[in-house]
Write a structure and sequence with these properties.
Elements: H1 3-31, H2 39-50, E1 54-61, E2 70-79, E3 88-98, H3 101-105, E4 113-125, E5 152-164, E6 169-177, E7 183-191, E8 194-202, E9 214-222, E10 225-233, E11 241-250, H4 253-260, E12 270-279, E13 282-292, E14 295-306, E15 309-322, H5 329-342, E16 360-368, E17 371-372, E18 382-389, E19 392-401, E20 406-414, E21 421-432, H6 433-437, E22 443-456, H7 460-464, E23 468-481, H8 482-488, H9 492-501, E24 506-519, E25 522-531, E26 535-544, E27 549-558, E28 570-574, E29 579-582, H10 595-610, H11 627-630
Parallel strand pairs: 4-5, 15-16, 15-17
Antiparallel strand pairs: 1-2, 2-3, 3-4, 5-6, 6-7, 7-8, 8-9, 9-10, 10-11, 11-12, 12-13, 13-14, 14-15, 16-18, 18-19, 19-20, 20-21, 21-22, 22-23, 23-24, 24-25, 25-26, 26-27, 27-28, 28-29
Length: 635
Amino acid sequence: MTPATRSLLRRAGMFGVVLLAIVALVVLALGALPFGLLRPVLEARIAARYGAPVQIGSISRKQLFSYTPDVSINDLRIAQPAWVGGGDFVRARAVSLRLPVLRLLFGQVHPNALIVDGLEVALVRDASGRSNWQRSRPDDAPPATQGPGLANLTIRDGRLSLRDDKRSLVVAGTFSAVGARGLQLSTAGTFLGTPARLEVHGGRIDGIDPAKPWPVQLHLTSPALRLDAQGATDGVLNTHRFRAVVTTRAPTLRNLDRVIEAGLFSTQPIALIGEVRHDGNDWYLDRIGGGVGRSRFIGKGTILKRAGRTNIDASVRASRFDFDDLSDTAGNAHAAAAEAITGKRVLPATPINLSHLGRTDGTLTVRIDRLLSDEGTVFRTLNGRITLDHRLLVIDRLVSTLTTGQMTGLLRVDHRSGRPKLSTDLRIEGMALETLLGTPDDIGGIVRGRITLTGEGDTIRGALAHAGGKVAIVSNHGTVRTAVADVLGQDLGGTIKQSILHPSAREPLRCLVGDFRARAGVLTPAPLAIDTGSAIGLGSGQINLADERIALTLAGHTRGDPVLRIVDPIRIGGTLAKPAVAIAGSGTPSGRPSMGGFFKAFGRSIKDALGFGDASPPRPAFVPLDCERLSAALR
């Protein structure tokens, strides 16, 4: 070995010794780290986290030498963010925590033991959803799923206030976490302007495994909402992941939505119970059931949030359901007041404006075993699937059983641009004709129908008021009372004869066809025709979907040549909800002629027979309708 080599090795050895000495000094220094020197750094980090000024009175350590020292932070104050308008977010008289020094070097501040005395917390959230306790993060950032990881927590003399303008919840009270008593929070205030109490009870945080399930109960009591939840978080104080059984009662579903913020609407009073899981940003309803008004249902679903959008996948089965339950008392009163002005309507005023669902997608499968209605309904059951994708809503697989027959098809609402566009393609099979016309003694048969309409508007009623398309019904192989057939053929003599001698006699109904073309919300028959074999009637006029008023006439003739002809055609007026039929001079909604009206009609018929009446158009030749061709309206 040369002298130069020996010199190099000697220097290297000395450097190693010095390096080891330095490392040893650093390690020893860490064991005796003066935490008071870290006060400016800690204040800066907390201020950056909450966007508000931070002050710390002093920081000290209890053990002179330890790599997991107990550190005391005295007189901690975190001010409210500027948008809150003054005051303190957090104040603490003293905070004691155990800090692993080596982890602290790598920025991992996760104490496993914490003691806080004189803690005051003022939580604030504005109406837009901005809060002082949660910093914003990008939509594509992964959601938090971990809790604080505390094995020991003691809080003495704690006070908490919450002003949540988005939920309309304001409460204040005391809280503590001491030994076996666990976490106890008791507050009072208001919810939606009504007196409210909010209480939370959690398990002990005293020498526990911080990763194991931690039991917790929550109770919100108010006239506006009663909510009770009992379950466990996935680790102590981990509000990001938990499961619970939740029961709730409220005057309307919208009050519950103030708490869960799922975009729900006003309804009749609710009583619900559900098994709920929360994981990061996602919610899972493993089972939910109960009642809304007099409706009863069970269901399940998931609510996932991805890239700033909410995706819902759910299924609901109702043993009974009333659509009126989907509006609260004020909404139903408003609808009743509007109906008192406009009259009863058949077309629903169901909203189809999807602007508030611009960031919501999903699928909802619905099965209703029994439909309810105070005023009666021909609909008995309803099944279907509702799909929403970027403000395109489709209701397909639609099957509704009627009193007789069923309705199938789909509805589509496209609100991706401009006003909502409604389109329908509905088919009716096997419906009783007497159910449709409301005259079971006069006419009977089986109806097939198809409704294909397209229009724009914020409600179903508004869209159909401007719709184009067609509405077609066909009935074959029915029966009609012979006296009614004579009225249809405008045969006064035959009508009188049948009414006196054979009032119950019936004859076949070869076909009834109503092929209405819609334009700007007005239905025009093309054609409206009835063939009983002995009489034919052809209709004209219109039905206006905007006000639901009917203005139709039926003019007919018989196979024979009646001696006395009814000069006046059959007139159908009134509304879809309450048609008014005028027959042989009648002006009554029942269509039954008065004695005065009858004699006037009889007199006009005598004048017509003697040639003294107004010149009437020549009667066309009696040609039976081509029912097969006309029935093609359903294709």
